[in-house]
Amino acid sequence: MRTMFLFRALLVMCLAPGWTLLHAWQGSPQAEVFILDHGTNFVARPDGVDIEDGSTREEITALRDDVIRIRIGRNDKMPEDASWAVLPQARHSRINVTPESSAASFGFRTKSMQVQIARSNLLLTVRDLKGKIVQQDALPVRFEGDSFRISKTMPIDEHYFGLGDKTGPLDRRDEAFSLWNTDAYRFQESTDPIYKSIPFFITYRAGLASGVLLDNTWRTNFDFGKQLPGVYSFGAVDGPLDYYVTYGPSAKQVVKTYAWLTGTPPLPPLWTFGFQQSRYTYLPQSRVIEVANRLRTDHIPADAIYLDIGYQDKNRPFTVDRSEFPDIAGMVAKLKADHFHVVAITDLHIAKLPDHHYLPYDSGMAGDHFVKNPDGSVYSGVVWPGPSVFPDFTRQQTRAWWGTLYQPLRTIGIDGFWNDMNEPSVFDSPTKTIPLNVVHCIDEPGFSKREATHAEIHDVYGMENSRATYEGLKTLDPGVRPFVLTRATYAGGQRYAATWTGDNSSSWNHLRMTTPMLENLGLSGFAFAGADVGGFAGTPPADLLTKWLEIGAFQPIDRDHTELGTGDQEPWVGGPEQEAIRRRFIEARYRLMPYLYTLAEDASRTGLPMVRPLFLEFPDAAPDKHPIDVDVSAAGEFLLGRDLLIAAPAFPGELDRYQVEFPSEDWYNYWTGEKVRATTGVHTGPTETAANQVWLKTTIEPALDTLPVFARGGSILPIAPLVESTGETPQGQLTLRVYVGEDCDGTIYQDDGQSYSYQKGEFLRMKFDCHVATDGFRLRISPHEGSYAAWWKSLRVEIYGWEPHLNSASLNGQAMPATASPILHGLAITVPDDGRGAELHMQ
User: Strand 341-345 to strand 304-307: parallel, antiparallel, or no bridges (unpaired)?
Assistant: First the structure.
């Protein structure tokens, strides 16, 4: 091995432009330092290149034309080719490349990228085929003991997104983060680390995007120029150096490629997109019924009620406190009859109760399912039930055993499960978690069977807990889609569970923080995510709860939740006036349910999130193609799918007027149908291209009972009649709101909302497109795809942004007896839908 000590390493850093001695990796003072900068052998391979630096080997392979993988092994061996995050079919994918070699570099070319390794110092450069740099090493890879660091150049106009729901701005630039799953009760804007470890980020420069996934489960960290301007870097304290670079060129394509690597989320049951009511804790049983009855009596649409740990006997998972819930099965049955689904918490710690006939402990001990101390004894730590033991979820046998524990709760009729405290949180540990030297057994297909310390397993522990729950529920009820909600997870965890942002606070600042957290979660694979509406810690004032319920109505998981000892936080709290506003926005969510569910189904196929930053859909919004989401004026805005812009203020607690910054020129007021007119003129860019010069802006006067929502010109939105739960079949027509503009289209997806029959063709998909020309307006309605029957027989077509000349209409070339009726800022006409498709022509 060619090694060098700290002096030479620091000298190399000093010689690099812009670097100082302060950048030295903070490892052990005695750790050997090795810098990968001296190639002793270069070998072309069909799918990439191998480079040797003494006994250190670097392997760069092309998995697809737009995906490369970089692995580095030391001491003449490569790390085990196994992953908790990356799917085997992606990891083992290979394409043939075109080798390239010169006196200065060695590398290859694909149909999308050019990969070059400098012969002089082994710096990696990735370009697109136009010669634009996608990614470039700033320094050679550096090892210090078991830790490593990878450093990349950071152009002044490049932006960074991802890493899951880290706090702070949407853009990670000038920030640094540690990935180490942590119970972060009452986290604040500067708190780091928090609950999740998703080591994936997107680079974005002038519309050109790439992605980086560092597949390492040890404690990792990412620095986006916080320590040194002009350089971003990432590394881990131990474990394999194994990372992936994906090329867009669009950010949307990068997100899809990340889903190809780590998987798409499964389609959840329809009811999970309804309004959900929760608190820590509804006690006793009669209180749960009381809350459900009030929701129905006040006609507030809702689909789920949550049971926090108070329903359990002495907080022991998989038990029921019969003094508080004397007839939990009867309670669940009554709620089901009223179209409520019950979600119950099941923390992963198991109460340490020998000789108490506590089945989870007794069966777990019998099956050797708990993690061990280094001396071989079972590790115990204090959590809610007192002394507790912890399942070893890296064993497939343990995950299968864990799944069986849900049988009694499923028999009761509980439909969803909530895996909390799974960082894991431990109260009596100085690190707030399992000690690093506690031993796990990896016994998993695709891995070599071996022992591993908690230092290696910690960041995947919560994900494997949710995996065990998800797979267990599928085994118990193979025909029913599970719903699992997890607090802690890792890259790829979207395959098993939805998530939320953890124990936030009831403050205006936390409401403001929610949008970038959910956007970055969506970019990191978690299309189905939410935040505790109203805030978990503390009691929100009435206006804060109202505004949060308004914004939460347009986010994937809409759960109102609060902690023990706080005031009531249900929608009626604060009086009739507040309740009326909140009800109206929850109703708006239910009318949008066809759109929401269509987005969810799309996410399950493509990995595209439901909540999206503006740049994901509109990379050309600004003259210089910077992501306009980083503008202060647009920081509160987000997209729901491609077609709805929710324009909350950047600082929702302030009463001042604010501007909405639109990512394109053609938008309509969702509430009224009126086309948006600029109120502050246009902003021109440096070129004469009109499409790049215009930024549409409008001024908003904030009010408690309003939330600006806009529909994209060219969108066709499916809207349903109001129901009070997704368990009710809508009565009447499906409405198609057509907002005339370029690229005018839309779609709707439906199925039974609970089973896997859609995988056998029992679904309904329809597509719509419209066109305006000199001969009038045309709307094409596709034939029904799939065998699932529509609940509607006719379509109410509402058209905004177009006025007829003759007010005549024909369907499939036959004149219609009825003409369009005027509505506010538009017109409406009803057409039959027999499933065979149709074309509406209006003049």
Answer: parallel
What is d(CA 96, CA 12) in angstroms, rounded to the nearest whole number? 36
- Using CA atoms, how far apart are residues 642 and 647, in angstroms rounded to an integer? 14
Given a contact cutoff of 8 angstroms between Cβ atoms, the answer to whether 265 and 526 are in contact is yes
Task: Report the Cα 563 to chain-centroid distance in Å.
Answer: 24
Residues comprising the chain, all counted: 843
Instruction: Give pLDDT, residue 23.
Output: 35
> For 763-785, b where at least 16 C-beta lie within 10 A, e where not — what string?
bbbbebbbebeeebbbbebeebe
pLDDT of residue 31: 86
- pLDDT reported for residue 28: 53
Half-sphere exposure of 126 (CA within 13 A, CB side): 29
- 3-state class of 292 per DSSP? helix
DSSP string of 557-590? SEEE---TTSPP-STTTT-HHHHHHHHHHHHHHH
pLDDT for 519-540, tens place per residue? 999 999 999 999 999 999 999 9
Phi/psi of residue 402, nearest 5 degrees: -60, -40
Q: Which residues does 787 contact at the CB level (< 8 Å), separation at least 6? A: 761, 762, 763
CA proximity to 256, closest of 89, 130, 500, 67: 67
- Residue 114 in 3-state DSSP? strand
Report the pLDDT averaged over residues 635-649: 98
Q: What is the DSSP string of 669-728?
A: ETTT-PBP--SS-----SSS-HHHH---EEEE---TT---EEEETTBEEEE----SSTTS
Q: State the Cα–Cα distance between residues 378 and 723, nearest whole angstrom.
A: 51
Q: Give the span between the Cα atoms of 447 and 813, in whole angstroms.
A: 63
- State the CB neighbour count (10 A cutoff) for residue 731: 11
Sign of CA dihedral 622, 628, 633, 637: positive
Angle at 620 between CA 702 and CA 771, to 5 degrees: 85
Question: Residue 338, Cα to own-chain centre: how many angstroms?
Answer: 31
Mean pLDDT across 110-119: 98
Give the pLDDT band (50/70/90) at residue 119.
very high
Give the chain's mean pLDDT.
Answer: 94
**pLDDT tens per residue, range 15-61:** 333 333 233 334 455 789 999 999 999 999 999 999 999 999 999 99
Rounded Cα–Cα distance for residues 558 and 533 (Å): 7
Residue pair 132/147 in contact by the 8 Å Cβ criterion: no
CA 121 – CA 136 distance, rounded (Å): 13
Q: Specify the pLDDT at position 807.
A: 87
How would you label 269-308 residue by residue, b for 16+ Cβ within 10 Å and e otherwise? bbbbbbbbbbbbbbebbeebbebbeebeeeebbbbbbbbb
Q: Which residues are catalytic?
A: 420, 423, 503
Burial of residue 815, with CB atoms counted within 10 A of its CB: 0-12 exposed, 13-18 middle, 19 or more buried: exposed
Residue 454: both structure tokens together:
């908690």
CA-nearest of 433, 408, 275 to 344 is: 408
CA distances 424 to 182, 460, 488, 502, 604, Å, are: 8, 10, 8, 13, 28
Overall pTM surpassing 0.85 (yes/no): yes
Query: What is the token pair recorded at 86?
Result: 């990356």
Burial 796-806 (b: 16+ CB within 10 A, else e): bbbbbbbebee
Give per-residue pLDDT as tens, 479-534. Answer: 999 999 999 999 999 999 999 999 999 999 999 999 999 999 999 999 999 999 99
Place of tokens 């999970």: 272
Tens digit of pLDDT for each residue in 219-265? 999 999 999 999 999 999 999 999 999 999 999 999 999 999 999 99
DSSP code per residue over 187-226: --TT--S-S-B--EEEEEETTEEEEEEE---S-EEEEESS
- pLDDT of 368 reads 98
